[in-house]
Amino acid sequence: MNSPRQLPSRNPSVRPLGDVKLTLELDPHQGSPPESTLAPTDSVQVLAKYGKSFRFAGRFLSQKVLQDCAKLYHFCRLLDDVVDETEDKSLALIALNNVRFDLKQQFSQQAVVQNFIVLSQQYCFDSDTAEELLNGLESDLTEVECKSEQELKRYSYRVAGVVGVFMCQIMGVRNKEALAHGVDLGIAMQMTNIARDVIEDAAAGRRYLPGNWVACSPEELQSPNKQDAAAIQRGVRRLLIEADLYYCSAWEGLKYLPMRNRIAIAVAAEVYRGIGVKLKQRDCDIWKGRVHIGIVRKSALAIKALIKLLQINLQSNDNNPHQMELHLALKNLPHTNTSAKEAST
């Protein structure tokens, strides 16, 4: 996905985002897209409704950090809704470009976007990183068929790795080396999402499994023959194995977080990884329905995370460097391992 060559001017005739939900004002003959599933409510309530695993882990955060993380989630969720729920993708592009304009001007009349702008000022988010997020979302406005593992990783960085960077900054990270580990947690979670949502994404014309792993169209993913089904299951398993490498790197980065935030992120990582574990337990059969983690299992995974965190702390492994191999596909992207950039040139 190429970055926009210049910042577009705001289109005042189209309001792509309401205060909390999507509201597009269109010519009545064109029809309007469905409203966002987000109800007009507080950001923490939005997190509780749509990001249950994150809200569960958020119990370990202070109210201030939880509120700010929820505002970040709300912003990302709202933009994702714009991309997914707007039938006319040209209008969704206008919406994203209007957000680009607002971020550039550092002011928005849309409350959710303005909250993100305030966060960016408070925690010094850089504009290049926010632009990568918008670029990743924009790439979903057309049919998606990832060709390679490198393309998959760059996409995962844009829509989730950069969110890991923002989370690090909200959580008080002072060491810039930690940001690469934040990127890795975002990538790991996005890979888990992709593995879980293969069928839903295929119904939307998207195939994120690399073509050199799975040579199927989105249509074929939904109703494959026996041979293709086996290849798809192997591809999902391979993706989850790859995600585990990024989860391991994320754990290595927990040492950079203040203790209370460290606990919350450890729980979030373990609970989210549990989705992939459950998917592998059913032999990566994605046609059996979407994987969910219930509250009892979440509680067990939280205890596991706390024990694991204690063991890691006792082992005193503070000097483990970030594995640059994880970022070889992320050349020239913000807050990635600089050694990886040099090694890949």
Q: Main β-sheet, in a few words? A: 2 strands, parallel
As for the number of domains, it is 2
- Could you tell me the CATH topology label of the largest domain: Farnesyl Diphosphate Synthase
> Helical percent range?
55-70%
- Beta-strand content estimate: under 5%
Second-tier CATH architecture of the largest domain: Orthogonal Bundle
The chain-level mean pLDDT equals 88
CATH class of the largest domain: Mainly Alpha
- Radius of gyration, in angstroms, nearest whole number: 20 Å
Number of strands: 2
Termini separation? 21 Å
Report the principal-axis shape: globular
* Strand and helix order: HHHHHHEHHHEHHHHH
Structural class: mainly alpha
Strand order of the largest sheet: 1-2
- Low-pLDDT parts are 1-5, 18-40
The fourth-level CATH homologous superfamily of the largest domain is Farnesyl Diphosphate Synthase
Outline the structure in words.
The chain has 345 residues and is an all-alpha fold. The protein is built from 14 helices and two strands. The protein has helices at residues 43-50, 52-57, 63-85, 89-105, 111-123, 127-139, 149-170, 178-196, 198-203, 218-222, 226-253, 259-281, 295-315, 338-344, and strands spanning 144-145, 206-207. It has a two-stranded parallel sheet. Helix 6 (127-139) packs across helix 7 (149-170). The radius of gyration is 20 Å and the shape is globular.
